[in-house]
Fold each of these.
Amino acid sequence: MDLLTAIRQPVTAELEQYKTLFDEALKHSDDYLGMALSFLKQRRGKMMRPLLVLLVAKECGEVNMAAYRSAVTLEVLHTASLVHDDVVDESDERRGQGSVNAVYGNKMAVLLGDYLLSTAMQQSAMTGNLHCVDVVARLGATLSEGEIAQLANIRQQIYNEQAYYEVIRCKTAVLFACCGEMAAVAMQADAAFVEKARTFGENVGMCFQIRDDLFDYYDDKQIGKPTGNDMREGKLTLPALYALTHSDNQEMHRLAELVKTGEATANDIQRLIEMVKQSGGIEYAQKVMEQYAAKAEQCLDAFQNPAVKEGLRQYLMYVIGRKA
Amino acid sequence: MDLLTAIRQPVTAELEQYKTLFDEALKHSDDYLGMALSFLKQRRGKMMRPLLVLLVAKECGEVNMAAYRSAVTLEVLHTASLVHDDVVDESDERRGQGSVNAVYGNKMAVLLGDYLLSTAMQQSAMTGNLHCVDVVARLGATLSEGEIAQLANIRQQIYNEQAYYEVIRCKTAVLFACCGEMAAVAMQADAAFVEKARTFGENVGMCFQIRDDLFDYYDDKQIGKPTGNDMREGKLTLPALYALTHSDNQEMHRLAELVKTGEATANDIQRLIEMVKQSGGIEYAQKVMEQYAAKAEQCLDAFQNPAVKEGLRQYLMYVIGRKA
């Protein structure tokens, strides 16, 4: 049994129920919109976020409809933000499939993302819980704040580790945090547990993004994106930030400036990646990720259901060790 | 006293309170995002939608915080959709100011629109009323459905008046309908009044869009957009649809096809506009608009407050007679 199957074990039936509700939420009678939504449904992905919602909810008892709606809400919101991110990043591919902007054009991608954002909000209202609505609305704002901060950072010449953490918290970790929080709120857990569930999610999310950024330093066909993709978009992530702030190698700084200004060639990027690797940037990012993982693991003390607890521990292991 | 001032008369103090809340909702400590939001706040516009919310709310008694939040919600949502529409339509101008995409680029415009959508949702949650949240979430979905349908219609060669009404209902009238509905719901009015307030708004909204589409046939510097702008975007509106379905003039049909395929020159568009005018398309659209106005006026029977009732009647007159 592979790791993902093991993680899903405690909520196998619940995942099926979730899938039905998700597919219903993305159904539409209009030909053109319906076609675009079906296109999105084809790339179901690994369902990491709904899985987290369902595992946390299961800890609190039999998964209720508000928790299912929370899982759908967050996955639809995530999908919306991916659709718009691909427009912003001018990406042609997503999970081995064409991006919406590549297949349907930028205009449709903007409108489809808007439709999905509103669908997420409708689903959150269906929880019947204003606290859940508020969590999602704040999350939506935070996700765009994160992307806007990243856009602004690209223009700046300063290399700032703190700004990096702030960006990945906003653009990735907060979504995982909300998976934990909404699940607990939907199940009417007490405030202390809500906080633990949120903190677990947030730290898992930090690991998830650092791991994602590490992929950018390795050539691997399993991962959808090619090496150096972030740098091509003008983004310097944790390994490079570490290397740049711990070395005054003039060539490395010059290459980093070219990345920032969008003038770096493929060779420049390859050279910078090698230099970052030689400076210990990879090991540093790994270490930081493990620190976040340790913080996440501490939160598991608040969980009682042995199957759920083990599922979440494996979930964390999967996130920090994943190959794609 | 001009007409707009007269319309605002019954809710002068309430509009000031609304402006304070709106400006607070669009404040942000982040430099870049804060700057873009300030840019948007400069173009306050005529506040047609908040004005409608406040007038309807005032009918029900002293305007409460839920109604103020509804007004902010709907204006922020409207602003979000304008920002994204300008990306989709590749517009450089909006209310005599540069569009967000023209000034900050497409990427920022997409992200800023997302931020605004989420802000609208947060404001709706602040009404403390799940019904209000649901109205807004459905509205958000409908607005994007309308834009998507319009995008799909542009590709089609059929000239269909019903499809036109459906598009303008989704992209414009439903927003006005929700102004009436949310105001009444926020003030805890009974279901019959909610329905009247919604129907008034919907019919006003139909008038608003038909009037807007009529502008496209006249050269007037007061109006932000140049003559023939809709046709340049491949859109055929009510006057042209009437002319095309009531004439088999081969030249007119050939020109309309060029508009649809985006191949029409400035001269083609000028020629088509003239032919539509000669075919009585303008008078027909005027007549249809007046029918919607009559439906709106009927709804005013449900209003008791004389100042509010007169304000709403003038509001309607303003919408059908406005020059910009």
Note: The longest helix of chain A spans residues 130-155.
Amino acid sequence: MSAAGEGDHAYNPYTRSCPSRRLLRELGELWSVLVFGALYDGPLRFTEIARRVDGISTKMLTQTLRTLERDGLVSREYYTESPPRVTYALTELGRDLADVMDALEKWAVGHMDEVLAAREAYDAEHAG
Amino acid sequence: MSAAGEGDHAYNPYTRSCPSRRLLRELGELWSVLVFGALYDGPLRFTEIARRVDGISTKMLTQTLRTLERDGLVSREYYTESPPRVTYALTELGRDLADVMDALEKWAVGHMDEVLAAREAYDAEHAG
């Protein structure tokens, strides 16, 4: 992970115009990470995702799913039942990324206590 | 990675009031990921980081470094040379996270072509 290009790929998110910077920004979004987590165990309907990701608005979930679908990371499946059913699932590409997202989520959860302790120490040192 | 609490930890970013949600949001920020990448190979001065992360403003870099320092992920080192020198480095905790950040960055760079192809297909399908 050198900031300078490594010569072994065409993309470099350290360069402001590179499309990989925008992708990285998109993937790191809280809602992307949580939607990936919600879909990790299997396909879900829109309302099921909304229920799992507490506090996400309908608008934000719609937008997040559309972005992820356009990127080829999430697929919409239509079932012509009665009533018809639509579910969202990780694609193969999305599944590959899901492990990275999962690692990030697990890191935040697993180190929250250490981060809170660090904040307390920092605030005490910088108080007054 | 179940959206419902798993009972084996106290934090759950799927719950809107959990501090781990805010931490996850913070860590996923583009500038956090890129600053981690810049510091991956060793300590750097402020101006060196700014040079590597093309397009980051002084204000945004200052803010990002302060947040990461407060979280215990980055440390400031003062060297009382003449002129005095200040460098930023990943802490042990930050180094642990850096591998996850690196995986995310590598994923974006390594799959950019697939994502661009998916976008093209999506746009063609949804055109008109």
Note: The beta strands of chain A are 74-79, 85-90.
